[in-house]
Amino acid sequence: MINEALTSIKGIGPGREKQLHKLGINNVSNLLVYFPRSYEDRRKIFSIKELENGVTAGVVGTVVSIMEKKPRPRLSILDITITDGTGPMKIVLFNQGYKKNFYKKGQRLYAYGKAEFQYGSMQMNSPQIENLGTDAMPDTGIVPIYPLAEGVSQYVVRSSIRNWFDAHHTMDEIMPPEIRANYMTMNRYDAFKEMHFPSSSESYEKARYQLAYEELFIMQSGLALLRNKEQCHVGPKMEPDGVLMEQCKENLPFQLTGDQERAISEISQDMQDERPMQRLLQGDVGSGKTVVATLSLVKAVENGYQAVIMAPTEILATQHYEGITELCKHLPINIALLTGSTSKKEKDRIYEELQNGTIQLIIGTHALIQDKVQFKNLGLVIIDEQHRFGVNQRAALQHKGVYPHVLIMTATPIPRTMTLSVYGDLAVSIIKEMPPGRKPVKTYVVDSSYKERLRVFFGKEMTTGHQVYVVCPLVEESEKLDLQAAEELFLELKDYFYKSFDVGLVHGRMNPKEKDEVMQAFHEGHIQLLVSTTVIEVGVNVPNATIMCIEGAERFGLSQLHQLRGRVGRGDIQAYCILVSDSKGDVSQERLRLMESTHDGFELAEQDLLLRGSGQLFGLAQSGLPDLRIANIIKDIDILVQARNDVLSYIREFGIEQLEKYMKLELEKRFGEKFLRILYN
Ligand code: ADP
Ligand code: MG
């Protein structure tokens, strides 16, 4: 069934097949998982006389007149009057004048929508309309409404799926029998059929639950297999903390916070196990992850292994290099920095000394992934700001060692729902507590009438030697327009401050080298005010910056705003975050107000998930995981947890090979090659 041609279904010829292609449906199995986006309850056909104001209902009637009106230049209204013998009803379509010739007098239509009594007659504005021909009756029951593309009708999708179900009466089961016995109340065929053509809302709910469970079970099986593969390897088992660790801790310029201590000891424990560590270190911007990373790196070195930390940009890598070198300055450790702009001569030296083991600790960018980089005995891999890297890049670095320990760090607070679904049971350490002495960033929401006052405020802060970020939104759909806006603002501010301060611009269209140069100039204080699109989101540390001003703030996610806010307030000077927004909507105002009242990144991330969905929070697209078609990892968290527990107990009872045997085909189908390559490399 997997790759069976669409044309094997009754009613689908080359023409319809082409239409279905437009929806991304290329074979029978694609078609069957093309689930409705909503449903209409058409169990009753109303007569027009029966309609009451405000009721959503379906009626069947014959067209008696069609009229187009153009009350304003950009507004066209199409009035189609139908009657069913009990009275007339008007169907009103806005700006769809092209449909004028689509409908004809005498034609029978089914219209489903909200009935409204207006101007003395019953009407429906923009209802769902189906053309019925002379004697056909509309589909009744609870009818699926599919997402469509231009030139494809509900009828084509619906009847194609209907015809498949009419011709087939079974579907292969894919879940292990023990799981089916416990959880599945319907067979798979019935569950799919209920999803497309529900017989009642109760059985629909049952079917949905079952298929969501199935989907999450498959996903969790994949993650379990992946993790199992990692765990059966033997990695570098390290000794309990020794002299070098002791020295490093003694020489720290500050006292570790409780959370930092705990994270370090969790990591140490993991590294003392022969199973390679797979741990996520989460901590808000400025919470002090670098020192945790440093101690982990030192531990690997202390045990005679090489260690590496990879950051997404040159400036970040350089900052890590400087910070880590400083923290390790009393220790006999050979540290190097490798980035794209390292000179050829230096690179050659680094390649050689990595291979012969002279360099013990290396810090760098993507340059580390290149083939020429070969380690003698890599024992620990740390990846900073992990959502900036794809699965493959992470894997490439990991494979430079023989199952090294892996620590990934992120400042994006990831709610538990996400860690569970994206990482399975990856171990997590969280730093919640900020280093002492931090003043919370004062946050204000203002509209653009504050422009002049803000500039005066920027000037005042810069006069005392502080620095300012101004961020303009960059959305992918229109990078060009946004760039224009950023450039305009840059020129305005440059003009405004030309006598006293230097203003810089950094944007997404610059190449990495250009970006780094501007950032470096800001870092070193040659630029006092930096206008940017969102590129500074990644953790650059400029302790002297005290104002973060974000234009069009309503266009950002709360997590993003929180990340940006984290760029300031890193020292003990009072810092400010100004959110400029002219959006009057209640929801966006409420979201922004939340920024004023909370500094908890986790809370903000949860809100984001609720309000905006998971996609953008966390580079899910890069995670290499399949799209979920039925389950929603936020709303269906209970099913997710259930499926995960069931996968784990299944493995305990029957063994991982048994699980693999049942799920392999399905995993291949859903996760695709990329996942399999990771699993079976
Ligand atoms: P992030 O988690 O964003 O990577 P960093 O590691 O860059 O944060 O730390 C932010 C700043 O806080 C650095 O200047 C660092 O020296 C300082 N810092 C880290 N831990 C502590 C601590 N326990 N006490 C005081 N300052 C600390
Ligand atoms: Mg950092």
TrEMBL record:
InterPro entries: ATP-dep_DNA_helicase_RecG, DEAD/DEAH_box_helicase_dom, Helicase_ATP-bd, Helicase_C-like, NA-bd_OB-fold, P-loop_NTPase, RecG/Mfd, RecG_dom3_C. It catalyses: ATP + H2O = ADP + phosphate + H(+); Couples ATP hydrolysis with the unwinding of duplex DNA by translocating in the 3'-5' direction. Gene3D superfamilies: Nucleic acid-binding proteins, P-loop containing nucleotide triphosphate hydrolases. Its EC number is 5.6.2.4. GO terms for molecular function: 3'-5' DNA helicase activity; ATP binding; ATP hydrolysis activity; DNA binding. Residues 450-610 form the Helicase C-terminal domain. NCBIfam families: PRK10917.1-3, PRK10917.2-2, recG. This is ATP-dependent DNA helicase RecG. It comes from Veillonella tobetsuensis.
